[in-house]
Structure formats: C-alpha cells, structure tokens
Model the fold of this input.
Amino acid sequence: MRVVTFGELMLRLTPPGYRKLVQAESFEAAYGGAEANVAVSLCCLGTQAEFVSKLPANDLGQAALNSLRRWGVQTGNIVRGGERLGVYYLERGASQRPSNVVYDRAHSAIAQASAGEFDWPAVFAGADWFHLTGITPALSPELADICLSACRTAKEKGLTVSFDPNYRAKLWSLSDAAAYMRRILPYVDVLITNENQAADLMDIRIPQTEINGDDVTDRGYLFLAHELQKNHGLRYVAIAERRTFSAEDNSFCAKLYDGEALCTSVKYRMDIVDRIGGGDAFAAGLIYALREGFSTQEAVSFAAAASCLKHSVEGDSSPLSAREVLSLANGSANGRVQR
Amino acid sequence: MRVVTFGELMLRLTPPGYRKLVQAESFEAAYGGAEANVAVSLCCLGTQAEFVSKLPANDLGQAALNSLRRWGVQTGNIVRGGERLGVYYLERGASQRPSNVVYDRAHSAIAQASAGEFDWPAVFAGADWFHLTGITPALSPELADICLSACRTAKEKGLTVSFDPNYRAKLWSLSDAAAYMRRILPYVDVLITNENQAADLMDIRIPQTEINGDDVTDRGYLFLAHELQKNHGLRYVAIAERRTFSAEDNSFCAKLYDGEALCTSVKYRMDIVDRIGGGDAFAAGLIYALREGFSTQEAVSFAAAASCLKHSVEGDSSPLSAREVLSLANGSANGRVQR
Amino acid sequence: MRVVTFGELMLRLTPPGYRKLVQAESFEAAYGGAEANVAVSLCCLGTQAEFVSKLPANDLGQAALNSLRRWGVQTGNIVRGGERLGVYYLERGASQRPSNVVYDRAHSAIAQASAGEFDWPAVFAGADWFHLTGITPALSPELADICLSACRTAKEKGLTVSFDPNYRAKLWSLSDAAAYMRRILPYVDVLITNENQAADLMDIRIPQTEINGDDVTDRGYLFLAHELQKNHGLRYVAIAERRTFSAEDNSFCAKLYDGEALCTSVKYRMDIVDRIGGGDAFAAGLIYALREGFSTQEAVSFAAAASCLKHSVEGDSSPLSAREVLSLANGSANGRVQR
Amino acid sequence: MRVVTFGELMLRLTPPGYRKLVQAESFEAAYGGAEANVAVSLCCLGTQAEFVSKLPANDLGQAALNSLRRWGVQTGNIVRGGERLGVYYLERGASQRPSNVVYDRAHSAIAQASAGEFDWPAVFAGADWFHLTGITPALSPELADICLSACRTAKEKGLTVSFDPNYRAKLWSLSDAAAYMRRILPYVDVLITNENQAADLMDIRIPQTEINGDDVTDRGYLFLAHELQKNHGLRYVAIAERRTFSAEDNSFCAKLYDGEALCTSVKYRMDIVDRIGGGDAFAAGLIYALREGFSTQEAVSFAAAASCLKHSVEGDSSPLSAREVLSLANGSANGRVQR
Amino acid sequence: MRVVTFGELMLRLTPPGYRKLVQAESFEAAYGGAEANVAVSLCCLGTQAEFVSKLPANDLGQAALNSLRRWGVQTGNIVRGGERLGVYYLERGASQRPSNVVYDRAHSAIAQASAGEFDWPAVFAGADWFHLTGITPALSPELADICLSACRTAKEKGLTVSFDPNYRAKLWSLSDAAAYMRRILPYVDVLITNENQAADLMDIRIPQTEINGDDVTDRGYLFLAHELQKNHGLRYVAIAERRTFSAEDNSFCAKLYDGEALCTSVKYRMDIVDRIGGGDAFAAGLIYALREGFSTQEAVSFAAAASCLKHSVEGDSSPLSAREVLSLANGSANGRVQR
Amino acid sequence: MRVVTFGELMLRLTPPGYRKLVQAESFEAAYGGAEANVAVSLCCLGTQAEFVSKLPANDLGQAALNSLRRWGVQTGNIVRGGERLGVYYLERGASQRPSNVVYDRAHSAIAQASAGEFDWPAVFAGADWFHLTGITPALSPELADICLSACRTAKEKGLTVSFDPNYRAKLWSLSDAAAYMRRILPYVDVLITNENQAADLMDIRIPQTEINGDDVTDRGYLFLAHELQKNHGLRYVAIAERRTFSAEDNSFCAKLYDGEALCTSVKYRMDIVDRIGGGDAFAAGLIYALREGFSTQEAVSFAAAASCLKHSVEGDSSPLSAREVLSLANGSANGRVQR
Done:
C-alpha cells in the first residue's frame, strides 16, 4: 500500500551561498513543491509513495520527473504535456536578511490541467493515504475542483486524507482560501495547521488568556485542536509551532491531538541550512509515523524530528532515513560525529 | 551619437560543460537576446549604444538590466513592469550532437508591452543608428506594430536602420514573417541576411547554376545581393555564410554589397566555444565599421572577424575590443600567446 | 516486457577538466558499470530495463542505486549487503595523453556475492531479454558460475541473451576468458565483439589478405561474422570498429550480421567529450533496435548512432532519447543549433 | 544631483569558503574599496553616484570599472593609465580565527596619480555631495593634497562633504593621520567616526566615568559627539559602535548627533556572511537618508540597518535596495522567508 | 631533530557544503589520518616532522604522499606498495544532524604491511619524539606488534613517546583496546586522553562526587591525571574536554598534568567549520610546546588554542602558524579583521 | 646529485574555461615560472631538483613555496623577504583568439633581490646541473649579474649549465638581451633555442635557400646548430620547432645536435589543454634524458614527448612521470584508454 500526493513540481533556482539574485552568476538547480517534497521524504523514510501532477513533455519536465524517481517516488500517473514548468528563484537569507522567493509559476502545465486528465480511481488503486496542501487548489479554479474530486474518490476508496492549508498570499486571498477550507475539510482526516491559519482560515481563535507574547499555553493549543477536531470530525490535528529569530535561527515544536490527548514534541532550536520544505518534512514524518502505528506521542516526536533534520540539509525535501530520524526523536541531538 | 537597439532580453540558463538538460544539477546564468547582444558588443568595440526593452520590476529584471550596464550599455529607456522575464535553456552540443535550446519566453514583459510605453522620438534623441531583428516583431502583433512605428520615427529623425530577419520557426510561420518583411523593408538601410532567408522571406533565389552542393559562387551571391538591394532600395546588403560541420566545427564567411561591389571576407574555420550570438557579433561589427567610415572591404573583414572571435568566448555577446578584432581582421589568426 | 542486465555498479571519481589524478583537489562523482550503463541507456531510449547486482547496505550503495532509479531503471532485485562499493578513478586524457583508469574494485559486494542471493526465475518474470558482459564473470569464480546459471534460466524462460566479451586484462587472463567463452557462448543469441576479441578469445582470425594496415575489408568482416555465427549458432553478430587517433579523436563504425547479410553503419569521426561507455551505448542501441523490430540495416545504423552520441555527453551512460538517436541515424549529423 | 566619491578600487581575491590563503586553489574575484563601495551602495539604494579614481588601461582596469557600471555607478571621470591595479587578498575568518587581509596595493595607478589628472570643478558639476575616507590621502602625499584640493572645490561649489577617517595602520602612522585630520576637518560637514579614532586622531577622549568595560554610556557618546561638532563646526557627527565577539558574531549600533540631540539606532547582533564594507554601507545609508530629508532618528536607524544587512551578503558593497533597508529599519528583523 | 609519526593516510571524500552522501554529485578530495595530521600541523607550526606509513605505488598513493610534502612533511621512509589506499567519506553535519563518516579502509596498504618493511633504527636517526595513536594498532595484529616494536626502538634511542588512544569502535573492541593499552603504556611518556577513555581503557574512574552532570571538577581531573601518571610512570598526562552541543557548536578545554600541578586552558566555545582533526591539532600543539620548552601552563594554553583554531579551517589538519596560535593563546580571541 | 634552477615564481590567475579577464568572476590559482616549472617537471620525472629564488615572507610566498614542495622540489635555499609576489593573469585563448598574458610582476621580491642573498657555493653542493633562462637576468641589472655569478660558480664546481634565452619583449629590448647572451654563453653547455632567437639574439641566420615558407630544412637546422655549437663551444644545441595554427592547434618538433649529428623527434600535432610551460617541459625532459645517459636520438625523442604531453595537462608545469613520457616517446601516441 502506498501514499499518494498531488500538486505542482517546480524548478528551484538558488544562487550559491548567500548571494542575492542580483549578484547571481549561476544557480543550483533542484526540483520541489510541497506535495512532491512529502512524497520524496516518505520514500526516504521507507514508505512507498506516488506523486501525481502534470509536467511539460520537454527536457525540463523529464528532469523534474527524474528528480523524483531518483528517490523511489512512483511517477506512473504523471501526465505529460502543457505549456511550461513553473520556476521559483530562492535567495537564501542570513541573519536579519530574510530568504526571498521570486515565483515564476504562472501558466505552468499543472496550473492549466483539466479534470479529465486524472483518473483518480485508477490512481488510488493500491493506495491507503492521500496527502494534499492548499497550494494546489490555489493554482486555478479547475484545480480546486480536481482536488475536491480526488478527495471524494479517496474517501470512497477508504484512503486516509491529510491536508495542510499552506496558505500563500501570492496565490489567493484569505477569503477565497477560507471558503475553500469549508469545502475540503469534510474529506479530511488529518489536518496539519498552526494558530494563524486556524484563525484566518478556519475561524478558531485561541483565547487571549492563553497567549503570552509569542507563546501559547498548552491549554491554548488544546483548545484550538479540540475545536478543529470537533467542528470538522478530524481524526488528528497536528500543530506546527515555528518561531523565527533570524534567517538561520528558528525554533520548531509540534503538537498532535488525537481527540483525547495533546502530545507535544521537544522544542528544537535550529541553525538552519535550508529552510524550505520544513513543513513538508513534518507532514511526511507524521504520515510515516501514523501509518507505522506509532502512538500519538511517538508520532509527534518523530514528525518534529523529521522536520528539524530537514532544516540541516540542502534542497526542498528530506533525504533522511527513518533510522536517522528515530535517533534524534529518541534524544540523540548533540550532533556528535558518527565514526 | 549612439546606436539604439530594441528587443527582448532573456535569462539564459546553461548546464556546465557538455551536460544535457536532463543531467543538469546547476546552471550558469547569463542574460542575452539578439538586439541586446548587439548593444553589448558595440559598447565593447567602443561605440555608445542603448538598449530599449521592457523588463519586469523584480530582482530578475534588475539583474538583467545590470548585466547590460556592466558593459556600458545605456538603459535609461527600458520600461520596468510586466509579468515575467523570458528564460531560455541552452544545452551545449558536441561533435554530432547539436546544441539544443528550450525556450520559456511566452508571457514575458516585452511580449506583452504596448505601444504607448515607448516614446521613440525621445529614445532617438542623440542617436544615429537603429538596429532591429525579426525576433522582436515575432513576439506579438503589438510588437510588430511597435517595431514599424519605431522604424518610421527613426527614418524621420535621420537614423540609419539595420535589420536582420533572424527567422525563428518556433515564433511565427514563414508566411507571416515574409509578409512582415514586406512591411518593414521600406525603412531598412542595411540588411543582414543569408541565401535561405532571401529565398524564404524575400523570394530571391540564387540560380541553380551558381550553386554547387553547399557552395554558392560569388556570382550567385552578387545576384542575390543586387536583387535585394535593387528591390528594396537598400544601402548595404550583408550576407553571412555559415557552414556547420559539427557542433564545434563551423566555417564563417561574410559578403557585403554596397550597390557596386561585393566584398568578401576571409573564410574562418572555427573550433567553437559558444555558438550563440555569432550573428549578433557580426551585426555589431558591421555597424561599428560602417559608422567608423571603413571601406566596404574593411567593413566586411572587420565584421567577419568580430563574429569569428565571438565564437571563441562564452556567453551571448562579444566582450572583444576593436583592437582585438582588428588584429584578426588584419590577418593575425594563429592564436599565438600574447606575452 | 523488459530487458534485464546483471553486473557491477561502481562509484566513478573523475577530476574536473583535464586534471590528472595527482593534480585533483576534487572529484565529480557518478556511478557506472558496463551492464548498468546498458540498462540506463535502454530506459532513456524508452525501453523498460532492470539492473540486477549486489550493493552494500550503506549510503554509498543507496546513492548508487538511486543513480539508476533516476533514469527509470528497475532495481527491485538488487541485493543489499556485502563489504564495499567498488570505486574507479578516471583521469580524462587529451590529445596524445591517454585517459587512465585506476580500479579500486576488489572486495566489492558483488564480487563477493554468492549464487543463492539471486533468484533468476523470479528476476526473469516479465522479461524477454538478458544482457551480460565478460566483466561480471571475471570478478570471481562464483560470479562466473552465477552468470552461466542466469543464462541457462534465461534460455529456459525464452529470453534472448546478448553478450559482449568486454575483455579486461586487469581482471583475468586471455586463456581464462577464452575458456569461459566456450562455456557461455552456447547460451548466447546476440554477440557483440570486434576482430581482436574474435581472434584472442574465440580463435577466429580474419585472413591477412583482408587486412590493410588498420583497415579490414567488408569481406574480412563478413568472414569473421559468418564464422562466429556458424560456430556458435548465433542469431546476430555485431562488430564494433573503433579507431583511436588521439584521446579525443576516434572513429566508430559498426557491422551487424544476421546470418544472411552484413550491414554497415556510417563511420563517425568524433570529437569526444567522454569516451567511457561508448560500447555500452552501442549494445543498448542494438537491443533497443532489435526489440523494436528494426531491419538489420536500421538496427546497426541506430546502434552506431547511439554509440556516437554517447561520446558527446559526460558520464558512463547515455541520456539520449530514441528521437535524438534516430535524428542522427537518419543523417542529421551536422550539430546545428536546435532552436 | 548626484554623490561623488573618490578613492582606490582594488581587485579582491578571496579563497572559497573558510580556506586560508595557504590552502587556496582558486579565488573568488571582486572589486572593492571604501569609497567605491559607498558609490555602489548608494546606486543600489536609488541615488545617483559617481566614483572618481585612476585605473590602469588594461583588462583588469576595465574589469574593475565594469564592476561599478553594473550597479549604475557613473565612471566618466575615472582616469585610465598608470602601472597596476592594487590587489588585496582576503582570508575569511571563523569563530576565534580572525579574517586576514594581505594587501598588495603599492605602486597602484591611483597611488601614483598626480593632481593635474583630476578636474574637480568639472567633476562636481551636477553633484551635491562629496564623500571621502582617510584611506585615500594615506596612499601618497600627492593624494593627500589632491583630497584637500577636491574638498576645497567641493565646498566652493556648495557640496556637502562627508568624511570617514578609516584609519589603517598599514598605510600611515597615527601622528601623520592625526595631522592630516587637522587639515581636512575644516572642509567636513558630516564626520563618521568612533571613540577610538576620536581619541587617537582628534584627541577627544570620553571621560572614564562614562565607560564600563566595553560599553560607553549615552552621555559619553553625547560628550564625544558634541566636542567633535563644536571643535570642527560639523553639521552631523555619526558614531559607529561595533563590538566583535568572534569572526562571525559582532554587534553594530550607531549614533547620530545633529548638534542638538544624539539619536541611537537599534543594536544589531549579527551572524556575519562578509564583514568587509560594513562601515561603507553605513556611510552610504547615512548619505542616502540625509539627502532624502530623513529626520536624525530616521537617518541613524536607516544607516544602521543598511550596515547590518551588508554583513549578510557577500562582497565589499551592499546590493540592497532602500525598500529592503527600510523593512529592517522599521523593525522587521526576524529573517522570515518572503514568499 | 624532528618528530616522527606513524599511521594510516586515507583519501577523504567530502560532499560540498552540507550535502548528505546520497545527495552528492561531487566530492572535495583531501588526504588525512590522525598521525599524518599531527605531522602536517607540526610542520606548519615550524617543527620538522616525518610521517611513516605504507602507500600504494599508484597515482592515488602518490597524490596522498604529495599532500604531505606540500606542508613540508618528510616522507622518505614511506614504503610504497600494497593493494589500495584507504578511503573515508565524510558527510558534514549541521545543527542536530551529526557528521557521519563511512569508512572504506579495509585491505589498505598499511593495514596489510609487515614488520620487515620498517627499519625503525634508521627512521629514528635524527629524531627526538615519536607520536602514535590507538588507530594504527587497531588496523591489524601485525600493525599492533609493529607499533610496539617501534616504541621499543624509540625508547632505546632516547626519543620521547606520545600516545593518544583515539578509540574507534568500528576497528576493535574495548577489551582488545584495553589489553593493548597495557602493552604499550610502559613505553609512553606523554599520554593524551579523556575521562571516558581513562575509564574504559585504563580502568581509572573519577569519583562520582567530582562529577556534576556533564561537568567534572578540577579535583576530579587531578585525581584522574595523577592516577594515570602514577600507575604508568608518565611524564605528562593531557586531558581533552570536549562538549558537543550541536554539530557546529562545541566547547573545548584542556588540562595538562606534569606530576605536580594540573594546568587548565581557557574553555573555547566554537562555531565549527570542520570538526575532523581537532584532537590531532591538540596533540601537535602539545608536542610543539613541550619541545619548545614552554611551561606546563603555557603548553596547555598553546595546545588548546591550536585545537580551537583547527576547528575554524577546512580539512583534516591545521595549516596555522605558531604566531597565529600564540595570538589566540595569549588572549586575542575576538576574530577581528587583521588589516 | 641534483639539478638546480634559479628564477622567479609567480602566482598565476586564470579565469575558468574560456572566459576573458573582463568576464572573470573567479580565478584558478597556481604558481609558475619558467625555472620553477623545470624543477617541478624534473621531480615528477624522478630527478632530484632544487629551486632557488626569493619569495615574500607572507602567506602568498608560503603558498608559492608549498606548491613546489608538493612535487618534491627542494626549497631550502629560497630566501624569504621582499615586497611582493609577482602575479600574472592568463586568459586562455581558443581558435583564432590568442591566449593573453597580463603581467603584474614589477617590484617582486626576486626582482629586487641583491647578490649577497645567494650563497652559490653552498647552493651547488651536491648538484651536478644548473638551469637558467633569459627571463631571470631580464628582471633587473642586479639579477643579470647574479645569474652570471651563479654560472661562474657552477662551472667552477663542475656543474653542467643549460640555458634557454626565453626572450620576452615586455622585459627587455632585443639589443640588451643580445648583449647579455654574449656575456653568459661562455658558461653554457646546453643551449635550448629556436631559429628566431638564434637570429635575433645570437646573429645566426639560416640561409634563405633552406627555408620554405614556415618550414626549415634539416640542412638549415644543422647549419644553425653547428654555427651555435662552434661559436660558443657548446656541448649540445637543442632547437624547438613550434608552429601555431590556432590557439589549441600547434605542432611541436625538436632537434638536438651533439656536435656530430642532428637528431630529430617526431612532429606532434597537438590539441592543446594548456599552452604555458611547453618549453619548460621540453627543457626538463632534455635535462632528465641527458643526465640519465640517453643517446642523442633518445634524448630528443624523450624531451619532445615530455613537451607534447605537457600541453595536455592544466598548469604551468608537467606532472608526468618518466614512464608516461617514455610510453609516448616509444610511439604509443593514440590516446587509447588505459584500463
């Protein structure tokens, strides 16, 4: 049985080191996208995963597809055709200077895909989990419908559906995103979110008494998770708590609510190599852990460790194995040389 | 007095060495486009040149603009705005494997520009020459009209107009290009072309008796040049004769007809470093030479040498100085170390 | 239906540019081996292919395996375990200086594999072709037996078996290799060889009257192919004719004998980017063409073009598509820019 | 109206990463110098700026000049000629190991320039600000006089003059520098300095009661600024307060005194990418802010933010836009990804 | 007089930046090994040093040998021959992700060396110090005996012998290592160790009352050093105290006991560039200091500073000069630019 | 017994690939100089060699010195001190574009050295050969005298002296060089030259009847060699015949006259990787061969092969072993892969 994810795969172009785009004489090339990152990370953890999308029938589309196969991602349901491959330029921040993303993703093959190109019942044969983020429905109204249709089929076929709203202001408005949340949440089993998205997209606000400056109390998170779970009939609510002190200095902590208890991971303070894909690695870690039957506490610890380690490697997706993630989740966080 | 060129400037992404696109892990970044290449080459030869275009108001547009300023190109009339910067991917060929270009230039800022954005009378103040290629009008019907309008203004202001059809089958059909030729040729003083374009776009065919396999006799070229000159009232007809034996092994020779004599350059056999922009360096060399008052023979020799040397450097445009080009034009072609 | 190949996959370490090993401060890393190269090239041509081997259960073994998956090679029957991954260091030659290979492949996982680790009937399910070279049996006596056992099973299952002796003096003696040829040839349908191997390993010598210096007449090659075909009941005999003028300047021509006619390809004169894997790309091209039902003439033309183009790209294996190979096989050899 | 700066532009050679000079196999090449850095940074902020110097009439001089044009710096008054381009080698420090600069700048074109080569009245046409540092007069007695003469002309033409002593012990003695300060300060409107230079070069010492270890009280700085302002009739006194905890870990804070109040910026704690040019970016930020009519508090906040951000990018000068600097000056310092 | 060290020299292959091995497309190549690192560091400090080993008689062995000569290490007693050069792959860790070493050192030339290949009396002519680590005897039983024989000869010749147990669990068991310690300690004058090795290999345990969490009191270290000194008749006992907070964030402090007093260095908190060889740089600093006649306090300060600075440079060994180390040892630790 | 060479060692900075200096963003760093190149090449061939010079007492001087030690060159008599290390910038030519050298060598430590800094009797202890080129005396009048004094001592000590005029027009005039030739030739045993230098510096002109265009007859070379030998009492006259067809396409052939016969090498046609140092590799090959007692024919064949192979590797000096050179000298010139 395998996990299916669906979304856009883009060419990522990054100037070397800490050069800004206006200083770049070359770019490191990689391919990434939230849902593809989840599929790659799942394969590296040891789970079978498939990525579904549409890629242009040219050399760039092929290179993007190959970048997934390298890690073992199944690509048999990727449609080939369309106008172009989306591109995003990433300028790595440092200290007080933020990382900066310039998107050039309009008119991409997937953004122009139509419903008839995806045969969801066939895609979901042999699958038990479907993962989606809010980026894909934001790309076009047609894709918004395709995502709903995929979720509907997934549910009919008995798959678990996980969803991360992943709100991007450059793609759609908060009100459009909130409206879409109401359409898709009925199909969702596992929701991955944070307090800002809960407030802005799902209208759940933590009481002010549970907030101290940047910090939220455990009671506050429990309230949030419980409301979401109750309102939308969710199986699990995962909450990612990131704090950004500088471009390289972030903390990351996660919560997981299973309807009974809210379990919390260690809070990691990270010296970041590559910030992109930290959330996707969390999603992958969570899916892996839940499918492996980990307890709620084990699952949130594993998923947070997977996310933490992603920040220490270059690229959009995490090449770490389950063994490496478990080593950190089990407490070995001192970075001592392994020899 | 300066030379003005008008067209599209794209980001060029090239895998290192002889890697194919599907093998690329990084790209060398440069910015190029036929008319921008001419402007850069002119500046390096020692002529004042300005490039007019539209570039997006983001970091990529700024980096593209900076790449021109570096060489001294004037950029004060470049409009900022629009959707995106065009991109092209260049896979360097070798031996029997051809170089391969993948365009991703649709929806670019310049392709979506409108007539009101360019104030040609202001642009041409202080200019005595306007250079254009057939790529720009192929980008959109609006641009086709803008080019005509620019030519009209240029003629009114007394500028010399040079034009290189530069036919690209991926941008428009032969019949559309031929129709456009009939509209623009009345404004052209200096035409840069070759026997294929003459036949396909301007309906001038060299008699079969003057063709031996790949070779055309001098009489054949004279016929061609004379017909073009006579039919369209041209001041100069320049003919570029390239023969392609392999990806790195080409010959290049040029002819220049001034209405009286057809002057011919040396034929260079080149071991090519970078094929792109060879024709643009020829155009720049020709404009430089004619503006400097070189004789027809000197001009064609200089322009051919400028093109030859471009093939020996990386990038779309030629950084060579007039001194370096003259050294080759005057016969110093043995590549001996200068020390 | 798919093609199966079996052999060793090594880490290839190459100093950048034309640096010698004693000058190297860094290495480009790739993974290659004759039979793996054939599988990669087949996938790029559009054929399903699987590679069978044994790789260590560490990060290097994983990276090697991933390098195959990237191109679509199936890796489900690769055994994981054993001591180490073989390495080879490649120093790129230039002009009169030959390329130089330093092997560090002893004690590799595959060289120490045992018969029980490969379940050939299971491997060959869904396969119609098995390709092998003389490198694999040379790695250990156990592997020599495993190869025979695999061939026996392949024949029982109705697969076509192709074999390239690929004699390497650093691995075994001529007499040991010749003795092994007598054991394996009964299972072979398609033999890929040249006049030296025919003489040294299979005791077929072209009459001196058919040899002029470095050249062999068509009658000479026909004699050779016919003798081999007749003696060993072969379906096809393919002969690769390489001439080495300098490190970058080689010619390549191929012959294919189907028991009736000897068909000959064009002779390519190549300006080489990377010499390694030229023979493997020929084998892949031949297998592709024969499986696609090409005529003997079409098949040898396609296979020679595939080999020729391999020399123009970096790495052990050919990333070229069938479309690109056909373009050359059909005569488009001038390397003109595709744009 | 534009800003003019005058000084030396050198080739900067930096080993990649944290390699020491004795480990270097290659160098990253850039061009920098205190006054050129200010000009580049001003152009990136959006101010017209011109750099005046003398550069050799060879390819290196041209490359140096081009490096300025790229950012829009005007170079029309740069004299070409002289013996050589100065070079400096920069070894990037880390942790307890300091960055190390090896100068090879003796005999440079500018160090050997003579007064007659610069036509200051012509240079200052269209300019309203002249910036200078103490490095230029330290290069030769002739240059010391040229700087005074330039300042005199600048004042006559009504330009504002800013000066940063930038004392370098490798170029001249403290007593020579102090003597020169007495000659140049009469022409200075805006002085950029720190407490060490104030003591060593201008004989103003903060009372010990206002110093606690490494820290100076606001009253101490006010005393210092007021004394300098009063003694030398300055319009503004800017004080840069850097503290160096390790090679990558510095704090930076600035003060600006306008004769009435001493305004103080935020104190930034920085994880440094490239330390060189931090002071020049401060000067550029200050000039930009004062010319734009910012209040004293806004000006010091902007200038400190400009300096802080410079530390996060590679190279001698700051490519940051006014928008980016304002974002930090207005409090957005957490380095969160912009997407 | 010179220092002699004896051990294995390996090719070190490191992916660029923070890439994991499974992400590597290239490797930085260097040559290292504990005892070779000590010899290189000694030469850079200004001491004559010789490294003794066995290297294969191929280009890789030559490159390894050249890498030592570059720094001035004497190599006249390196035996050439044997099967292969050992390799180790180093994946640089970051934040919570540890650095990871994959060894491929079995079957190396030195691991298969035999006693007759080393003529110790000749090697030690002109030498006054012999340094060894526990890695070398762990490579083979034969090497264990060779090391003892070398120590015996060294003592007979009047050399000082220093030893660092450098326990590696991948090479031998704790009990084998402990048994070997009992054989070699009688020859040792200067022992470099830490509290874990003292407990595991030499059965000296610090009383629990002297341990607070990760910290050991000075009384605890004094107890340890005194026990070791007394039991084994040592001249000096050096103790390295490393604490690992993350992959880049370590502290380092050293103690040196001369039979009378326990002297302690500053505790350095380091932002690490390259962790490998930190202990070897400490050993080199200690040998340098003791041979130069530094006091016990000066010696431990110098050795700790040498180790600290090693962490700030890339590669296995320290290229720092005695002047640079002294500057830190004398308190200049703020990393301020030297210009 | 060893060979001593004396001269200048410079930092060589080369843009990557075929970039021109005005396009360079980085430089490959190496260290070279005619006489140092000879010493390095001799060590790689297996001869003991020492290089004498003066290098600044800074990190660049140390790096230069280390670059020689790496290959085994003895550096014990290199004086440390002086102002700066000379630099030269090398722009690699291609096809019709020549390579271009920009020197920045004035004021270097060696150019300012004085006679008292070199103790020639001590230098020549244990040496049997002294090699010098005309570059060193051209650097300063003092050096011209030092060279003569060194030659005088060398002759007194019984060393063989070899000399290559290596005329550089940028360093001195033809008449100064010719005058110096008359002073130094009395000490020379082995002269390495060509027909142009013979005419310009030593006033020996080949009769026009022996010249056909670019070619000289064997009788012409014999005349030249005999005249030189007779006039100056030389033991050997070596003549290098290079023809330059393009930047990468040269031929090289050598002649050696021993007073009786003129022996000629094969004429190599080379596809050049790096042209610099071709003559120095020839000198090294010749010195090696003559010291090894090769016959005149063997010596010229070996020296020409050594020079030919140098052109196929990057850098100023040849890392090739005697085995590799002999392989080519003995006729194995086809560049076939060694595996």
